[in-house]
Amino acid sequence: MPRRRLASSIATILTLSAAGGLCWLGADTAASFIEQRSRQDVEQALQASGQDWVGVATDGLQVRLTGTAPTEVDRFRAVTQAGSAVDPSRVVDAMTVASAEAMTPPDFKVELLRNDQGISLIGLVPASTDRAGLVRTLRAETAAPQVTDLLETADYAVPPGWDAAIRYGQQAAQMAAQAKISVQPGRVTISAITGSGDEKARLETALRRALPAGVDLVTDISAPRPVIAPFTLRFVMDGDGARFESCATDTAEGRDRIVDAAMKAGAAEVPACTLGLGAPSPDWSDAAAAAIGAVASLGRGAVTLSDADVSLVAPPGVAKADFDRAVAGLRRALPPVFSLQADLETAPDAAPQGPAEFTATLSDTQVLEMAGRISDDRMRETVDSVARARFPAVGGSLVNDPSVPGGWTVRVIAGLEALGTLHSGSLQVTPDLIRVTGTSGDMAAPEAAAARLGERLGPGVRYDLAIRYDRRLDPSLDLPDGPECVRQLNIVMSESEIGFEPSKAAIAGDPAPTLDRLAAVMAECADFQLEAGGHTDSQGSEGFNADLSRGRAQALVAAMADAGIDVSNMTARGYGESQPIASNDSEEGREENRRIEFRLMSDYPVRSAPLPAPVTLSGVTAEPAPPDQPADQPGDLIGPLQPDDPAPRPQVFGPALPQAGIGPVAPATVGAPEVFQTLDAREETLRLPVQTPTPDTPRPSPRPDEGSAP
């Protein structure tokens, strides 16, 4: 019995041992398989991503990563890649990172952003930079409402040129009220906006003077466009090539069109065109390009655009058919507001060819340029005397042509008198037509010009008028000019009660009464370029006062805008303590020096709207009204010159009037100042003295070519 129990126990032990051994063997085999498979999966994933520097070891379910990572980023990427092959919780990071070498200092840079709201400092500076001192200096030397420090620091050595550049950036922030100032070691870049061309020049000069050695300066400073009056472009093609003698345009896109037309016409260099204000029409560039194209089609000649008047001149030698074709094409291409005057010159030494023609151009400054044909030297003197009596300056040249039709000089004089009713314009006289174009401040100018032609010529002469009305030239509206606008604005400011808080640009008190008075003045003055200039006394630093005066001027302009006043052509500038009008040694004097004054930036108004299309008036002159007094009395109103007058009419136009039945003028009457004695109230007719011929004065025979108008 005991033996049987012992044998049974041994058998049980052996069975259990065999079962346990088999279980251990199976578990070991399974663990080895998992470890091997995990290692293979992780190694393949790391090699596929280029992380072959990583060592992979497995310990049961754990995957141990070893090795030296080039950077912390590489280490992180290795862990992430291994976690994509096995459960991330099984990955054990045993890697190290290579020792980092001394790093290069970062790119230090500061941007000082200056505007009406204050100054902001943005960027990265060395840790040793005195940020508090930088902010303190800006607050003390400027009147900026707020200085905001948004700088970050890095603990690296200060690079060469940094200290000088940052100090210069501070100075620049004091000089420019609207600017972005970028400071880098040894380099400062300034982008700024100024109120005028003069202010731009002053700022650029001040920045150059303050520039320290070893610091490079790059500037991009802009200013408002100038007012150009008259708005002029002149393009010439001659033996020296194609070129601009003057060029103004209103937009960058328009400048591109004009430049492209000039280059197509053969301009050797890219021409420069001034961007300005005052274009008579938004279609200025289209008119200019078309005019340049007309000159190019002729191969030589010149075209001048003065506001809305276009003058095309071709030299001798251009075929008449080509010229007529170019004129017709240009006339079709010009926008409605533009008027065209065309002239084909004749060679001085050659007999005039083609139909007779006389042209004249009157500028905004009342300068008259004449060209064309006249019968002889005496008639030329007559026309010249009439022109010089009516216009301040006269130029040009006339060609003698005895073949001109009868009454030619009378037609020319009548045309000049009609042109004299305008502010600016042009005249063209041909045997069949008198054409007058231009601009006037009188809405009835077309009728007045037609009446002038009728008074001089008599019935049956065709005329064509195209005259624009410009309200700025209308005396009946009594619009103030630029100096008068400034005078009225400064009177308002001298009597105003607008004040400012001490050492601040904030308006104190109620500015409404003063703003109402300023609005009344600006109702007719908003078209002028004006400057509101702020001034202070001498208390405080120079930089602070300049900033404070600028801020106060800006505050006034902003208050005017908020009150609905048009200030689109007004700028603000601060003069600080630089222009005192009284002594700063007393409180009364300092109070006088604390002021805002308006200044005129340009004598010419900015055209807020294009000129209207010209009023056209075509017809035939009728019989003039009878004169107010007999023709044989002194001061007679000269009417149409008739060859069949019953007696000689002794009135004269100038040094001599070679008209039928009129003898030479006595020396006492020679010369325009003596000859043209008076004008009537409307300047519609000349009143001339009576000169009685002496018995020994020969009388020239009547000239049929200088009789009545055809």
Task: Outline the fold blueprint.
Elements: H1 2-48, E1 55-59, E2 62-66, E3 68-69, H2 72-85, E4 91-93, E5 96-97, E6 109-115, E7 118-126, H3 131-141, E8 147-154, H4 162-175, E9 179-184, E10 187-193, H5 197-210, E11 216-222, E12 232-238, E13 241-246, E14 248-249, H6 252-264, E15 274-275, H7 284-298, E16 301-306, E17 309-314, H8 320-333, E18 339-344, E19 358-362, E20 367-374, H9 377-390, E21 393-400, H10 408-419, E22 424-429, E23 434-440, H11 445-457, E24 462-469, H12 482-494, E25 499-500, E26 507-508, H13 512-522, E27 530-535, H14 542-562, E28 570-574, H15 587-593, E29 595-600, E30 615-620, H16 672-675, E31 678-679, E32 686-687
In short:
By secondary structure, this protein is α/β, with parallel strands linked by helices. Helices cover 33% and strands 24% of the residues.
Radius of gyration: 45 Å
Largest sheet: 7 strands, mixed
Please report the first level of CATH classification, the CATH class of the domain at 482-600.
Alpha Beta
Count of helical regions: 16
In the CATH hierarchy, the third-tier topology of the domain at 482-600 is known as 60s Ribosomal Protein L30, Chain: A
**What do the pLDDT scores average to?**
81
The overall strand count is 32
Percent of sequence in beta strands: 15-25%
Specify the overall morphology.
Answer: elongated
Percent range for helical residues?
A: 25-40%
Low-confidence stretches: 628-710
How far do the termini sit from each other?
A: 170 Å
CATH hierarchy: architecture of the domain at 482-600? 2-Layer Sandwich
Strand order of the largest sheet: 21-20-19-22-23-24-30
CATH superfamily of the domain at 482-600: OmpA-like domain
**From the helix content, strand content and strand pairing, which structural class follows?**
alpha/beta
